[in-house]
Amino acid sequence: MKITKKDFGLGYTLIEIENDNGVKLRVSDLGARIVGLLIPGEKTRDLVVGFDNAQEYIQKDLYVGATIGRTAGRLIGGNFKINETIYQADVNEHTGNTLHGANGFISDKWTFSIKNNEVVFTHTSPDGEYGYPGNLSVEVKYTLNNDNIWSVEYQAKTDKDTLFNPTNHVYFNLTGNVENTINEHMLMIDADEFLPLSQHSTPIGIKEKVKETVFDFRQPKRLSEVFASDFPQKKLVDGIDHPFLLNKTKNKLDAALFLPKENISIEVTTSEPAVIIYTANGWPDGLDVRGQSSVKHSSITFETQVAPGAVEFPELKLGTIILKANETYTSKTDYKIKF
Ligand code: BGC
Fold it and tell me: pLDDT at position 283, please?
C-alpha cells in the first residue's frame, strides 16, 4: 500500500492510493472527488471518467466523480418542510428544481487527512447555505484495500434538523476509453421497481415494476438493448436517468457492471435503499477527456442514495432524508473491481 500526493492546479491536491495489486485510486480535495481508478495490465486502464487538473473540472463538468450534497438528485420546486418550517433551497432557473444540492459540495475545497490506505475529506456547510438549515459537518472517507474494493463512507452531523442525502458521481467506462459507448457493457440491478420520471426528470409519484420492461436488470442485460428500445421512460431521457429501488436481497449484489469480452467488472453493494443510474445522456459530443473525444452514452453512474421523491411523496415510503440535530448520519458503498 502506498499513498502519494501531488499538485492538481489552482491550489488543489491529487492524492493517489496504490494497493499491493497495482490498483490505483486517485482523489482530489476539489469536491472530495474520484479522479481515477486505474487497473494494471499490458496497458494501464482508467475505469472512470476524469480530467487531468482542477481547472479542467471547473471548465468542463464539476459533477464528474464528485461528492454530491446536500441532497442528491432533484427536489421538486426546491422547497421542503421540517418541523412546520418551510425552507427554500436554491433552484435552477430553467427547471425550478434543485439539482444535486444546488452545486453544494462539488466546487468546495475539502480538508483532507491521509492514513494507511484511506483518505478522509471533511467539510462544514454553514447554516442557510443554498437555503438548507443547520451547520452541517460532513466526512467522506475513501479506502482502497487489497481485495480491490474501493469504499466510500459518509458521516455527518447537523445542529438543526435538515435534509441530507449525499452520493458520489463517478462515471464508469470499463473499456477505459470514452470514445467507446457503453453499449457492450452488461448491467445488473437487484431491483424489482423503479421510479418513472416526468419530462423534468423528477419522480411522478408512483413506483413501477421493472418486469416485462427493458428496465428489468435482475438478470444482466446488455446496454445496447436498452438504448435501442422504444420504452417511453427510456425515450424520455434518451437512456437511463432513473432511481431503482433495491430489493436488498441477502447475500446478493445490489448492482454490477461488466464487460464480458474483457472480463472486467465492478460490483456494487450499498447500505442505501436506491441507486440512480445515469448513462451520460446529456453529455456534449466531443468533450475532451484526457485526450479522448467522448461520445453519447460513453459512461454510466451508480449514485447510491435514498431515491428522489422521498420528500415529496412520503406515501411511497422511499426512506427519510431528514437528518435530525445531533444525530449521526452514516452510509457506505463498496465498489469491488474484478479484472
Ligand atoms: C442526474 C442527471 C444530471 C446529471 C448531471 C445525474 O445524477 O440524474 O439528470 O444531468 O446528474 O451530471
Answer: 86
The pLDDT tens digits for 276-290 are 999 999 987 899 999
Three-state DSSP class for residue 151: strand
Looking at 123, 169, 185, 242, which residue is catalytic? 169
CA distance 10 to 159: 32
State pTM to two decimals.
0.97
Ligand 1 pocket, residue 282 CB under 6 Å: yes
Select from 63, 107, 172 the residue to mutate for testing ligand 1; criterion: most ligand atoms less than 8 Å from CB. Answer: 63
Look up the domain containing 258 and give its range: 2-338
End-to-end CA distance of the chain: 19
Contacts of 235 (CB under 8 A, 6+ apart): none
Bridge partners (DSSP) listed for residue 32? none
203 touches 309 (CB < 8 A): yes
What pLDDT, on the 0 to 100 scale, is given for residue 307? Answer: 98
Task: Give pLDDT tens digits for 231-266.
Answer: 999 999 999 999 999 999 999 999 999 999 999 999
The structural domain count of the chain equals 1
Q: Is the CB of 304 under 6 A from ligand 1?
A: no
**Domain at 126, CATH number:** 2.70.98.10
**Whether the CB of 63 sits within 6 Å of ligand 1:** yes
In this structure, what C-alpha cell is assigned to residue 207? Answer: 413506483
Flag residues of the chain having pLDDT under 70. none
Sign of CA dihedral 303, 190, 335, 42: negative
Ligand 1 atom at shortest distance from the alpha carbon of 301? 7
Which atom of ligand 1 is least distant from the CA of 72?
Answer: 7
